[in-house]
Structure formats: structure tokens, C-alpha cells
Design a protein that fits this description.
The complex is a heterodimer of chains A (285) and B (308). Chain A is an all-alpha fold. Chain A has 15 helices and no strands. Chain A is globular, with a radius of gyration of 25 Å. Chain A folds into two domains: 22-63, no CATH class; 70-284, MetI-like fold, CATH 1.10.3720. In chain A, helix 11 crosses helix 15 (270-278). Chain B is 69% helix and 3% strand. Chain B folds into two domains: 19-61, no CATH class; 70-302, MetI-like fold, CATH 1.10.3720. Chain B is globular, with a radius of gyration of 24 Å. Chain B is mainly alpha-helical and 308 residues long. Chain B is built from 13 helices and two strands. Classes of the chains: A mainly alpha (285), B mainly alpha (308). Chains A and B meet through helix 1, helix 4, helix 5, helix 6 and helix 8 of A and helix 1, helix 3, helix 4, helix 5 and helix 7 of B.
Amino acid sequence: MTAVSTAPPTSPTRMSAPARLGLHALLLLFSTIMLAPFVVMLVVSLIPNSAFLARDFSPANFSLDNYWRTFAAVPFGRYYFNSIVVAVSVTVFQILISSLAAFAFARLRFRGREALFLFYLATLMIPFPVTLIPNFLIVKNLGWYDTYLALIVPGLFSVFSTFLLRQYYRGIPLDFDEAARMDGASSLRIWWQIIVPLSGPVLATLSIFVFQDAWNAFLWPLVVTTSENMRTIPVGLAAFVGQYSTAWDLLMAGSVIALLPVLVIYVLGQKWFVQGIALSGMGGR
Amino acid sequence: MTSQSPPRRPFRWRPDQQWEGYLFILPSFLGFLVFIVLAVVMSLGISFSEWGLTGFKGFAGLVNYQQLLRDPVFWQTFWNTAFYIVTIVPLQLALGLIMAVGLNQAIRGVTLYRLIYFMPVVTTIVAGAIVFRLLLATNGPVNSLLASIYGLFGIPFSAPNWLGSSDFSKWSVVILTLWKNTGFTMVVYLAALQGVPKELYDAAHTDGANAWQRFRHVTLPLISPTTFFLFIFQMIGAFQLFSEPFVMTRGGPANSSLSVVQYIYLAAFRDIRMDKAAAMAWVLFVFIFAFTLLQNYMQKRWVYYESE
């Protein structure tokens, strides 16, 4: 009919109806497997243990009782408070500290810059277990054991975040700095008023990545805390398992309490989460 | 994300930026010095010392390392960790790739599927491990499901003791890890797939390549850098498994699912053998380093870089 057709006659990626149906079946199977643990968690959290063991899912059994009992048995509010304090502090200060260093590595010219940066990079390979024991001893000697300082301070220094921000800052034209310097702006001002505002997306994704990491951290908080008052959610939850190993109703209610806010935030801001986590996949690009 | 830098200008030293540069780096550098550099040096020192409850008790040379070699539990944890690597890494790459290829098609619901597959990734691993303790309990839902599937075909079913028998405990950890991390692999693969130029598929199609051939000879080579990255990333992760066995199986029964990092934790904080634990951490580091180097060397054979 018309000489100009935008759609190619046969796109190689177009699928036939049966193929599409088959694909949906497979994707739905995966979805079921991924979702099942969440569904089981929710259902068991709403019924008494005896009803679960008897597989009796009649509506009369459902109630929020387990939640009240869990809250009575475990100070989840306190765990939440601790997790929020720790994850927010780590995120804000780690990114500030990394951003300052990244700015210098990317945009200031001083002697020893490249050597210092290489020194940073060389430590990227060191696995966490190597620094675990000495950092525990350092924190203990500083008198920080079982305090917020122990939970937060060692997490503020990230070579990965510094590296990532430096890569981004290098992509911003240096002319911006030169022009601002002509107008008499200091380096601090250039960093705060030009570079930081220009790096909004990378800061957002990095924040999510760092926050997630701090929120879910388990081994370090387990090692440096001992009192119930200092536990973060993962540590509190693990201790809860120790006490109630087969009280499934309470354990599932506790897990739901721990997960619900994170999952709600995730569903609302899926895009940012996926980008934030995929950040660590950038090494592959 | 732009990681490409503009053409580098030759490095010009700016005397006025000398001290400023140091000042900007100072906060980061202080922490780096204490919690990374000092920590690494200390860790190495401790591994060559006798270090007990009261701290340093004297140099010990290679004694801690020799003790490790004679410790059957240490060998057991290395065998367990090797098992985790050879199961988790390939299974996760394969499943993640299948999911990503599925989601890279022109179908409805991609966003919803992706939302679901990625959900376990944002889940606290401790909560995940607790649910899998329930799912995999002898009288738990997984065995109920298996029993009814077996029953459907009239095959007699004896419920496996997933968490309580050394035949299955490692598999339980593998299953939990796959559930938790495959969504991550999927997302990274999906990004790579979306970067494959469409013209290449069109060209291959014109040349008469069928879907499998296009996948095998266009897609796979073009995403091989991502496969390489994921391989290394997941391998390092599997070397350092901790929370999964710690919460789900406690490393048992009879240490059959105990991971190296879990044993480091127990040695340092239960047995108060910081020295032995530090030595173990270094052995682990050497293994991770060696395997990463090996993979890096091998990549020439199978990783395809467009720019070359």
C-alpha cells in the first residue's frame, strides 16, 4: 500500500501465540516459586501453630494474635529504631565522605593523587572476613563495643563508593570548575554547588545500594553488639530464632514485621531499587 | 551511567590544590587507614601470633596455619564451600539468564515479573532463612508438596530431612541462596541483553539463523563480559556465605553445612581463637584471590569484547 512502513515485515523477536503462552507459563512458575515463601510467611503468621501443623486453614483461625504476642516477647520497636539510626547514618556519612574524596581524586590536581587512588583500589579485593577480627579488636579498644559508634563508624569508609563517584565525577566537564574558579569560587563551593547537584541520579542509586547493605548487614552487628537494646533487626530476628526455634507462628510474625516496611518501600520505588542494586553490576560494563 | 571519561588532559600539577586535595581526602583517608590498612596489617600479624583472651601472647610463626591443616573441621568447611561454589554459581547464572531472556521478550507483565523476581533480593537474609527453615522442615510445606506429587504418580515417598541430615543440609543452603540471589543475576543479565544491538539479530535472521542459533552465536558472545562479571561476583559471594547456614542449619548437622566464614566466626568469638580465625581468613583470601586471577586469565578464551 504505502511505500513507507515503519514496522519490519517479520521482526525476529516477535513470538507466536503458543510460544507466548508457554513463556508466560514458565514465568508464572518462577513467580510462584519466588512468591511462595512470602505467602507461607504471611499465612502462618496469622494462624496458631497448631492450626498450621494440622494444615487447618479455616477462616476462623485467622487473627493478628501472633503479632501482639511477638511484640510482647521481643522489642521489635527498639530493633527498628536501631536499624534506622544505623542505616541512615551510614548512608548519609558514607556518601558525604566518599563524595569529598572522589571529588579530589577526580577534579583536583595534587601530587600523589594517582598513587593514592591505586592504593585505594588495591584494597577492593580484600574480603570482609580478613578485616572482621582486627576491626572488632579496634572497636573494642576504642571503648565502642555495644554502642552505635561500633555499628556505624567502620561502615563509613567505602572504597567502592569512592571509586564509583570518582568515575562519575570524571565525566563532568572540567570547564565548569574553571569557570567557577574564575568567579572566585572555592573548591568546597564547586563540590557542593556544582558537582553534587549534577550527580543526583548516581547519588540516589548509590544511596539505595548503601542503605540496603547497611539495613541487611548481619555479621558485623552480630559481632559488635551484645545487649538486646543494641540489636538491629537481622540480629534481633536471629536471636529470636534461637529462643523460639519451632514456634512458627511467632517466627513468621516476626519475619513479617521485619520485612513489611522494606517490601512496601521496594514495591513503591522498584525502579530505584533495581538500579541501586544493579550498580554493583557495573564492574561488568 | 557514564563511566566514560573525556579525553584525558595531561596531568598538570596545581600547587594551589595540593593541600586542598589532601583536605578533601582526609576524612576518607583516616578511616581507610584505620579500618582497612591497619586492619589488614593487624590481621596478618595476629595470624602469625598467639592471640588469646588477653590479646597478644607472643609470636607463633606458622603454628596457626599448621594447626589449620591438621584440623578436620577446617577441611570440612573448605569442602562445603567448594560444594556451594560449584552448585550455586552455575545454577544461578543459568536460572538468571533464563529469566532475563524470558523478560527480554515483547510480552505483557514484564514489570510485574521483574518486581516479583527481585523481591527476595531486598529481603533481609535472616528472615529468608527463617522461612526456609519452616518450608524445609520435615513436616513442612515442601515435603507436603513433594508427597502429594509423588502420590499423584503412585510412587512411595520418604520425606527427606532437609535440614537435619548431612545428605541434604548443603542443598538446603543452596536452595535458599538461589531463591535469594537469582533476581540479582536476572537484573544484571537483563541490562546486558537490552544492550545487544537489534541490527545484529536482524542480520542473523536474514542469514537464516534460527532462534537458538541467534541466541548461541549472537547473544551469548555479546553478553559474555557480563557472564564473566557475574561469575566472579557470585563466586566471591559463595566463598563468603555466612548468614544462610548460620541461621538456617547452624552449620549442622555434624558441620555438614558449615561454611568457612562461619567457622572463622566460631573460632574467633566462640572459641576465642582470634589467631586461628585470622589465619583462616587469610587462607580464604588467598583462595579467592587465586581463583579470581585464574578466571581473569581464562577469560581470554571465552569472553568477547566488542572493542577488540
